[in-house]
Design goal:
Elements (H helix, E strand, L loop, with lengths): L15 E6 L11 E10 L5 E4 H4 L3 E4 L9 H8 L8 E6 L20 E11 L7
Antiparallel strand pairs: 1-5, 2-3, 2-4, 2-6, 5-6
Amino acid sequence: MALFLSDAADPNNETQINIMKEGRGKTPKQGDYITLHYKMRVQGQHHDFDDTWLIKKPYTFKLDPGARKVIDGWEKAFLSGKLKEGTTAELVIPYQEAYYEKGAPPYVPARSGIVCKIEVLSVNDHRCVIL
């Protein structure tokens, strides 16, 4: 059973991972390509500002910490070992691990945490896109 803490602040300012459905596939490691569906909203708001399910196009990225391919909260979550292929989870990401002090105008105001729902579709050691 999943515990939803979407608008609860983590006192340590770290990304929270709330597993909704546990996957049984590969566990991502540094250098892997991850393909996933996601939707994101600003913490405390009710509308999504980005949604790959809506556009029916999964997102693929290389897990390359420090290269700024994705936000820090995603890197930490995927390197945690908790987000295997097939996992559906909610990530609650503080601004310090998302878009920092400046935010990402016009979608993410300054100093705003974000909430992401993700579904990990594949983990590969080479680029492979699911259509």
